[in-house]
Amino acid sequence: MTATPAWPPQSTPRLFVDTPLAPGSITITGPQAHYLVSVMRMKTGDPLKLCDDLTGEWLGLASSVGKRDVTLDVTEQLREREAVPDLWLCAAPLKKGRIDWMVEKACELGVARIVPVVTRRSVVDKPKEERLRAHMIEAAEQCGRTAIPELAETVKLPALLRDWPAGRTLFFADEAGGEPALAAMRDGGASAAILIGPEGGFDDEERAAIRAVPGAIGVGLGPRILRADTAAAAAVAVWMAARGDW
Length: 246
Hints:
alpha/beta; eight-stranded parallel sheet; five-stranded mixed sheet; elongated
């Protein structure tokens, strides 16, 4: 007996939209419509998986395909929005390309919130939030995620430390040496954050200020020197293995 093909197919494209989803009609315009029409060659009746970062993933069927817009009938909910571990990534902004890669991987790995943090040795004062969010959305679409990390406003390190929430463990990658990350993160709380400095690292005064925060723990990420973007991905992966949903 021939098995019934899965519906919708695993190859069905995915798209995040700003409109809260529910059964009914939705029209896609702008760059997203161009992608569906010109790149994916969508035709009437084709399926599309839609996500709104609120309710989860829905099935849409193309009811009208024009040159500049696509209308879809949203028919059923495929998945609820996934549960996200309570982990923040607080990281110094990096140059274009490296910071794009960092936020992509943070999204793929399951971070709940990303906070750009300006330090004394930061080479970038304020990243372009629209571009970073676009990279996170693309990563979520490609990796089957139904949630996108919250992107907080850029903050200076002293303000971040001054307003640090009680009860949230702050693991910071300390190039001067710290506890082995895996052991420290296993013992840390379920609400946590990882703080990654710029390529030049934290200066001595900043390091002392971080250590003075209740619940701050300096951690080491192994015997090799890591670039800031690599350190962020490595630290998040260790936390997910130790306390997250891995």
